[in-house]
Amino acid sequence: MTKLKEESFLNDLNLSLEEAWKLLAQGKKDRHSPLHTLVVASNDQQGTPSQRVMVLRSIDTEKRLIRFNSDRRAAKVTQISENANVSVLGYHPEAKIQLRMGGTSEILKDGHHFETAWKNASPYGKRCYLADPGPGQIVAEPSSGLAPKLEGVKPSEEQLVPAKQNFSILQVKIDKLEWLYLAHTGHRRAQFSWNEEQQEWDSQWLIP
Question: Is residue 1 predicted with pLDDT exceeding 60?
Answer without folding.
Answer: no
